[in-house]
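<tokenise_the_fold>
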Amino acid sequence: MISVIIPLYNKEAIIGQSLQSVLSQDYDDFEVIVVNDGSTDRSADIVHSITDPRVRIIEQENGGPSKARNTGVRNAKGEWVVFLDADDELLPATLSYFDGLIKTHGKANFFACPFYVNDGKSKVLYWQCRNGFVKNPFKAHFLGLFLPRTGTCIYTKELVDSCMFNEDIRRYEDFDALFRMYRSATIYLDSRPVMVFNASYVSASKKRIDISEDFLGYLDFNGKCFWERLSLYKLFIEEREYYMEQVKELYPHLFYRYDLFLIYKIFSNLKKSKYLWNLYLRLSGLSLFKHE
């Protein structure tokens, strides 16, 4: 069974559409767990009005997306878990496609696929990939070749149980959990898009007042491999402006890591040249992916 876990907070305009994208799947062996995280609008009423027995709703006081997802995991009956945000939609036949991947690539406990971004005006494919087991997920993540997000991945419940969400984090909480999964998971990447990310409904990704509610406040470089350190440093460089004073206090040494900054800039500039970037990807492809 697949458990689809949806954290819900004030999404009355879209939650019905999101749920319908799951309930209309051409696959039967699934459940939907909606965790109402203290919504103050009609979101929960809309879910309660759905009589499909595959849908369960759990009520809790507002505790953030991490707590809501953890509540869903603790109540999940499935052997496999999909996290879907309340404002996103699964594409048709996604669950049956995931089931086929599971049966075909039995060694994997984490599958990831691309997705579309819908900004309300157009829908574009956010990233493309090649099929295969990911040999070095941190390297692929740093290079932007592996961009999993909620709704595009399916994991064994055993893996999720071992990497539960940090309930203090409300922004980039998925990065925190994913980075811990990267260290031990067997990941298969497939090129078929499976989800639509509805960007016009996004609210939770806005910066927090306190950096302790952002994964940026928990960066730990100790004992990490080279590519994990680079992935953490990339997040630091790209997000530090939102919390500059707090970042200076937490990570004064990172402002002087010219070695990491040089590597970051080399790859950033490499991406600006389509020819050089494509050449690099062809040369590095064998080191990023492996076959069964």
